[in-house]
Amino acid sequence: MSADTTTDIFEEHRPFLMGVAYRMLGRVADAEDVIQDAWLRWSRADREEVREPRAYLVRITTRLAIDRLRQVRARGEAYVGPWLPEPYATDFADTVPDTADRALLADSVSLAVLVVLESLSPLERAVFVLREAFGYPYAEIAALLDRGEPAVRQLAGRARRHVEERRPRYEVDPAQRRDLTERFLAAAAEGDLEGLMSLLAPDVRLVADSGGKAKAPVRILHTADKVGRFLVGIAGKGVLDLSYQLVEVNGGHAVLTLSGDKPDSVFQVDVADGRITTVYIIRNPDKLRSLAGH
User: Fold this and answer.
1) In terms of pLDDT, which residue wins out, 18 or 191?
2) Among the ranges given (66-80, 88-102, 130-144, 174-188), the one the predictor scored with the smallest mean pLDDT
3) Any bridge partners for residue 200, and if so which?
4) Is residue 93 within 8 Å of residue 103, measured between CB atoms?
5) What is the pTM of this model?
6) 101 pLDDT exceeds 70?
7) What span, in angstroms and rounded, lies between the C-alpha atoms of 143 and 187?
8) How far apart, in whole angstroms, are the C-alpha atoms of residue 217 and residue 232?
């Protein structure tokens, strides 16, 4: 196999591998490092031993991601305030024509689900991602992870129960979510408390991730009154040369705010029963680097 063919095969599968690695880690930079390590192993692999390139690449990517996740957790780094995944630019609306497939992929990469996945063990997370997000049969997952199929089924069942018990209920209706996101942006930018209150569910939550590196609440805010007043308060303070873009991250519409041409924050909402149930704000500058240029 020529060097060009080796590269072409890897590049063909790169988007899929990135999808697996990001769902495993919730961090774009770590996922990119895993993909780079996978490429190095692929480039050195004995081609005569590789009968199915995709299966081989998914296998090494998954194992590298498990190792990386274990390393991250072993470091036990303290994080200031709530933790949210690093925003991941997606384009399911343009690249996944089937509505059901698009909804499944969007849900599996949503901020709400990735937050819950943080509480799974690395093996549980790998099995959940491969099974629930990408539909791998249990036998194939067992082969990828060198585990028996009964053990994989047990891991999958435990992970699924854990996620279902803890994931918030929200609707994945792209049109409604976009509409509410746009109305939310307009009301927040104008400091329109009444307008915001009409969009927020009574028990809405605001979860802000700054990592202690930008101004944001260090605790989750609850109730429409507190969330609405906070949003109006930050709108009133203003930021010089602020602009807004509607982008797709983690499978859903979001608002990217820019100060000049530098990403300042990402706002995304979850929706249920026609109201906003959760507002996510990501302001940690380390987590916004991948969105520069969007």
Assistant:
1) 18
2) 88-102
3) 276
4) no
5) 0.88
6) no
7) 51
8) 14
Residue type, position 74, single letter: A
| Angle between helical axes of 28-44 and 53-75 (0-180°, round to 10) | 130
Cα–Cα distance, 220 to 197 (Å, whole number):
18
Structure tokens at 17: 């591998």
What is the widest separation between alpha-carbon atoms in the chain? 67
- Residue 176's identity, in one-letter code, is Q
User: Mind spelling out the 3-state secondary structure of the chain?
Assistant: CCHHHHHHHHHHHHHHHHHHHHHHHCCHHHHHHHHHHHHHHHHHCCHHHCCCHHHHHHHHHHHHHHHHHHHHHHHCCCCCCCCCCCCCECCHHHHCCCHHHHHHHHHHCCHHHHHHHCCCCHHHHHHHHHHHHCCCCHHHHHHHHCCCHHHHHHHHHHHHHHHHHHCCCCCCCHHHHHHHHHHHHHHHHCCCHHHHHHHEEEEEEEEEECCCCCCCCCCCEECHHHHHHHHHHHHHHCCCCEEEEEEEECCEEEEEEEECCEEEEEEEEEEECCEEEEEEEECCHHHCHHHCCC
Measured from the Cβ of residue 153, the count of other Cβ atoms closer than 10 Å reads: 17
Strand partners, 231: none
Mean pLDDT throughout 130-148? 94
> How far out from the chain centre does Cα 280 lie?
12
HSE on the CB side for 145, CA within 13 Å?
30
Question: What are 243-284's pLDDT values in tens digits?
Answer: 888 999 998 899 999 988 889 999 999 998 899 999 999 999
* Dihedrals phi, psi of 3, to nearest 5 degrees: -60, -40
262-272 vs 252-259, strand pairing mode = antiparallel
